[in-house]
């Protein structure tokens, strides 16, 4: 769901910072500490050829400790130098620098490197800059890794008294971080005038590095950056059972794999654990085989079985719509699907079906053997050679989620279907006029809508009362590891139209209803309309998009990493993630309806409306 959120804010504080300090016992108005940390070293400017690096167990543990601390500093140390530094490049170069440091000295080296940018990282609390109420300071106000669309990350400045009393800023003056069996401190409010100042890291100064994802240090800086965005900002850790801190180790280890395919598989496996259906990761992979072939049929899970739902015009096999796949290349189909779900980046509701749908695309024309059950119960064997991709597919057969290019369809007896997903705002007036003789309406929201104002306008004609949606929220982060969170609830309302259509209506939902689609369904339920269909995708809220090392340009994409950065719940407050919108009338597609090429969900909706008209 993008760019359409109207904010009316109600905030509440959830939890406090992992460690706090009492600033009232520091009464000087300058940034001079009771004890000043040792002076920092300067950033070098003469990079040397990259040395050979052996990523042994000890070094990998040191790297894990270092990047964990580095990303905490990146997002929470409040200085212009931190804000303006190139953190992926800094982390990549620092990894190589650590590899050239004696193992017993790496922890100190890590602190030394970070202090070049953020000098008030210290092992002693009394070396933090002193704060008085009128000390001018900077501090982060942030609900995302950086500002984007509806998200904000701003380095605020003002007196300590004024900033520390503002909503959404840190609750405490400093934070503590565990690092290499010691406790480190760094400020969350930093005086503008301090004895020590950091440098902005903008270019390589120690080692000449090739910014290729094939290089382990570049890969590590990338995946640890993705991990850190989730660690510090992703708002679903209270709803999804995952120990994300433990995922950093395999993510870093993946970067030492010589096989790009195996590397990507490990990375995808860790992120799939999040159950975030908005997740998208595209990484440079010269070994990846392009999908140049396809199977001349599509199968999906229907009533838990792998069923052919559509066939392509070039299909010459005996495989037909409604056939059930029993095995693929001798492997039972459920085992075949289950063995491939861990890298789908999809939630538990939809992982198996994603694998099924993706079977359409093949990297080679290697024949595939199928065992199938026909509608009469007989089993057949079919070997199919994938076809070469040439232009667009031409499939026949009703989609599992039936869709239409029309806006309005007459279903008989003055009952209409409005395909809400097709309605644009400028079409609302004509559409309403065409419904002048309607006695009841099916509102089809089984597909992602094209217009925010379009679906809102349609719903306003049919809701029984104003529909209020309080299911979205921003998480403002005051300290690392989400230890200091302020929740800002976002309230939206759809008012009943001034001239509503006072006729029965029911709303259709599908398993492909996702994000803004689910948002519309929540409004419908809030307004008193019933929803018929099956569990939806289970993710809503504005996405966050990121790039690393300009890989998106290399891949001709806008971004390489996408995740959900906004909390979205069900109407009743229960988790929406990995659950979907509540369904009032559960009517999944059936194998029988696929074989008969009938929209059983639409038929059930019409039956319901006729009962409302003739109680």
From TrEMBL:
<dbReference type="InterPro" id="IPR036034">
    <property type="entry name" value="PDZ_sf"/>
</dbReference>
<protein>
    <submittedName>
        <fullName>Peptidase S41</fullName>
    </submittedName>
</protein>
<feature type="compositionally biased region" description="Polar residues">
    <location>
        <begin position="20"/>
        <end position="45"/>
    </location>
</feature>
<feature type="signal peptide">
    <location>
        <begin position="1"/>
        <end position="25"/>
    </location>
</feature>
<feature type="region of interest" description="Disordered">
    <location>
        <begin position="20"/>
        <end position="52"/>
    </location>
</feature>
<keyword id="KW-0732">Signal</keyword>
<dbReference type="InterPro" id="IPR029045">
    <property type="entry name" value="ClpP/crotonase-like_dom_sf"/>
</dbReference>
């Amino acid at each position: 769901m993008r760019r359409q959120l109207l904010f009316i804010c109600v905030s509440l504080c959830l939890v406090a910072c992992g460690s706090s300090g009492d600033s009232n016992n520091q009464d000087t108005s300058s940034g001079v500490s009771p004890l000043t940390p040792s002076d920092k070293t300067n950033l070098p400017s003469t990079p040397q050829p990259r040395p050979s690096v052996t990523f042994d167990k000890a070094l990998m543990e040191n790297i894990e400790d270092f990047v964990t601390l580095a990303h905490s500093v990146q997002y929470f140390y409040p200085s212009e130098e931190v804000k303006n530094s190139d953190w992926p490049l800094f982390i990549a170069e620092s990894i190589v620098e650590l590899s050239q440091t004696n193992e017993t000295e790496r922890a100190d080296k890590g602190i030394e490197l970070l202090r070049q940018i953020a000098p008030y990282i210290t092992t002693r609390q009394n070396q933090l800059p002193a704060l008085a109420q009128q000390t001018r300071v900077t501090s982060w106000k942030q609900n995302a890794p950086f500002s984007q669309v509806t998200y904000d990350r701003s380095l605020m400045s003002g007196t300590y008294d004024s900033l520390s009393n503002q909503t959404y800023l840190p609750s405490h003056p400093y934070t503590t971080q565990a690092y290499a069996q010691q406790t480190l401190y760094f400020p969350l409010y930093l005086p503008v005038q301090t004895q020590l100042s950091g440098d902005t890291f903008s270019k390589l100064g120690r080692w000449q590095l090739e910014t290729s994802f094939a290089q382990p240090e570049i890969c590590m800086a990338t995946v640890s950056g993705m991990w850190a965005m989730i660690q510090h900002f992703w708002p679903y850790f209270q709803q999804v059972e995952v120990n994300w801190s433990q995922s950093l180790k395999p993510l870093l280890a993946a970067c030492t794999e010589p096989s790009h395919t195996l590397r990507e598989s490990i990375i995808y496996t860790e992120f799939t654990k999040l159950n975030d259906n908005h997740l998208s990761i595209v990484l440079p992979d010269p070994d990846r085989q392009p999908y140049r072939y396809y199977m001349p049929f599509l199968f999906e899970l229907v009533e838990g079985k792998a069923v052919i739902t559509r066939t392509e015009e070039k299909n010459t096999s005996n495989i037909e719509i409604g056939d059930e796949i029993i095995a693929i290349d001798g492997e039972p189909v459920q085992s075949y699907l289950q063995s491939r779900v861990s890298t789908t980046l999809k939630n538990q509701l939809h992982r198996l079906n994603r694998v099924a749908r993706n079977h359409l695309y093949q990297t080679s024309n290697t024949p595939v053997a199928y065992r199938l059950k026909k509608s009469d119960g007989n089993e057949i064997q079919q070997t199919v050679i994938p076809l070469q991709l040439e232009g667009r597919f031409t499939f026949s057969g009703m989609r599992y989620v039936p869709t239409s290019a029309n806006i309005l369809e007459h279903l008989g007896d003055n009952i209409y279907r409005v395909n809400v997903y097709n309605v644009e705002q400028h079409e609302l007036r004509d559409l309403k006029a065409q419904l002048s003789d309607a006695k009841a309406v099916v509102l089809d929201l089984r597909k992602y809508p094209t217009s925010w104002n379009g679906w809102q306008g349609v719903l306003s004609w049919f809701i029984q009362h104003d529909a209020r949606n309080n299911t979205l929220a921003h998480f403002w982060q005051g300290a690392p590891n989400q230890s200091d969170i302020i929740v800002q609830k976002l309230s939206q309302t759809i008012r009943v139209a001034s001239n509503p259509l006072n006729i029965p209506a029911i709303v259709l939902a599908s398993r492909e209803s996702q994000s803004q689609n689910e948002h519309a369904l929540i409004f419908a339920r809030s307004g008193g309309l019933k929803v018929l269909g099956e569990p939806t995708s289970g993710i809503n809220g504005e996405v966050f998009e990121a790039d690393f090392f300009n890989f998106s340009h290399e891949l001709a994409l806008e971004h390489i990493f996408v995740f959900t950065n906004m909390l979205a719940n069900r109407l009743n407050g229960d988790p929406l993630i990995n659950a979907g919108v509540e369904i009032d009338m559960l009517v999944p597609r059936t194998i029988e309806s696929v074989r008969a090429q009938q929209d059983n969900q639409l038929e059930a909706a019409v039956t319901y409306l006729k009962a409302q008209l003739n109680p």
